[in-house]
Amino acid sequence: MRINLLLIGIATFLFTGCKKILTADEENMRTVEQMYTDAGYAQGFVMNAYRTIPAYYDNTEYATDDAVTNQRTNALLQMATGSWTAANNPVSVWNQSYGALQYVNLFLSNADKVHWAADPEAAILFNKRMKGEAYGLRALYMYFLLRAHAGYTEDGQLMGVPIITELQTINADFNVPRASFDACIKQIYKDLDSADANLPMEYKDVSAVNQIPDRFRAVTEKTAVYNRVMGIYSSQLFNGLIAKSFRARTALLAASPAFQHASNPMTWAQAADHAAVVIDYKGGINGLPANGGTYYANNTEIDALSGGNNPAEMIWRENVLTGNSDLEAQHFPPSLFGTGLMNPSQNLVDAFPMANGYPVGNSNSGYDAASPYTGRDPRLARYIIYNGSTAGVGNQVIYTGSASGSDNGINARPASTRTGYYLKKRLRMDVNRNPASITGRNHYIPRIRYTEIYLAYAEAANEAWGPLGTGSHAYSAYDVIKAIRKRAGVGTGNGDAYLEEIKGDKDKMRALIRNERRLELCFESFRFWDLRRWKANLNEAARGLDVNGASITPLNVETRTYQDHMYYGPIPFSEVLKYNKLVQNKGWH
Q: Which domain holds residue 392?
């Protein structure tokens, strides 16, 4: 159905009684029973599921009003300009997700038979942790499947995706119907409950028995045994905090306008409550990491990472890439020996307020169109390279005007910007891409940031209780946004007068929260998905600005041609052709 029956290693398991598919040498064939005596082999099935987690930087900005790309053959560019179909879907996660679920389900069906360790207490803990990871990963993939493929069928039903919780063998019935959206949400929560029950909140070494969580102390009172399984050595594996974060992500998705339906009981209050669990664990409003907005460029912090430890901003991240310059090679301007792939839009630049907190279109902002980058929100200069910015190891001045005579100028060469802007976020300015002396630096890619969860709470709390309401919590949407803007350096000189002006207006606060989410999470692949779950305008053309001294010319760079049914992604056309129980979302053919 959704997989290629997953490699020869799994294919050998897919017959009842482990009958062989191929007639290879016995020593080259691995059977399911070998999991029971080889713990590393058993763990490998879960590790395979980790390897295909959807990318955090998926570059879907290319298909939004936040950016375009200068790579004219890019699949996301083509999707946004008219070629998105059920047979041509560059944002599909169908095959990789159901492939990962096969690994997870195979593991879960056999985990209790595995000899995890000679020490019986360690063996029990290993079994708990590995099953907890597997349940968590199953929930993770279901979340990404819903985000990409849930939607309304022609008869108006809000549907999710097929729920597969058992290994599908070669004899399985692959013609499985889609479950309701609500049933999928409940399955995600069920799996997250199982993950929570089997995992510590975070993987940390303990030095005393009373530091072992109660549910694990019932298994062992030996700190060495606990640390062996649940200690720092396991950092960056799925844990309880990640489970709670995915519960918050799932709840926010389900409460959003795109999924409002009588069959979906999720509320904004529930979404706020789930996000608050993570925020309370971090320490409430005061726990918002001070340097979280520049996580990618906190060079000293990044270079000091070791042993799987996390920066304060990170709930989950990928492994550190040492001496790496791949992102810079892709996104630096041509004069810094990059290919300038991500071109931020004027639309996004206009979304950054002035440093006094007022939107640029507000009469109190002091915005000067003749000097468009003066007095702006400090995040603009941190996240985007604009005309006159400095960048790179030598603080080179980047001129982006079409008359600048520079390779960095608009459309000067294939690697040049189309909008007048280059990406700065994600990148380290101390990387040197000069072919004569390439110098890479350490990087890491996030999977979940605390700031995302704070913003999720602000959005949900405002919808549930208004800007100043707190529900059962100690902070409001207003409190969160005030803290985020203060950290950014916005409104610090005037008490954030604009925020104070609108704090009693739910609709204006909604617009501000969405804008803060746009800015704080820009270039982290949220905008494409946020516009859809909000049912916001998908067809705002991406604009640019050609700055040549005092001559400033607005540009229309790329139109968007989405249709209304594209708020929801399609079920892959090949799957619908094969399985008549798999009903397509409305509008996709």
A: 65-92+332-424+525-571
Please report whether residue 360 resides in a domain: yes
Is 27 within a domain? Answer: no
Handedness of CA 190, 51, 524, 58 (dihedral sign): negative
- Pick from 357, 354, 392, 358: which is nearest to 376 by CA? 354
Q: What is the pTM of this model?
A: 0.95
Nearest 5°: the CA angle 161, 165, 167 is 115
Q: Which amino acid is at 512?
A: L
On whether residue 73 sits in a domain, the answer given is yes
Give pLDDT tens digits along the chain (589 positions). 443 334 434 433 333 333 333 343 444 467 888 999 999 999 999 999 999 999 999 999 999 999 999 999 999 999 999 999 999 999 999 999 999 999 999 999 999 999 999 999 999 999 999 999 999 999 999 999 999 999 999 999 999 999 999 999 999 999 999 999 999 999 999 999 999 999 999 999 999 999 999 999 999 999 999 999 999 999 999 999 999 999 999 999 999 999 999 999 999 999 999 999 999 999 999 999 999 999 999 999 999 998 889 999 999 999 999 999 999 999 999 999 999 999 999 999 999 999 999 999 999 999 999 999 999 999 999 999 999 999 999 999 999 999 999 999 999 999 999 999 999 999 999 999 999 999 999 999 999 999 999 999 999 999 999 999 999 999 999 999 999 999 999 999 999 999 999 999 999 999 999 999 999 999 999 999 999 999 999 999 999 999 999 999 999 999 999 999 999 999 999 999 999 999 999 999 8
**Total count of domains within the chain:** 1
Question: Which residues, including other chains, have CB under 8 Å from residue 549's CB and lie 6 or more apart?
Answer: 401
The region, left, alpha or beta by phi > 0 then psi within -120 to 50, assigned to residue 223 is alpha
Residue 120 lies in a domain: no
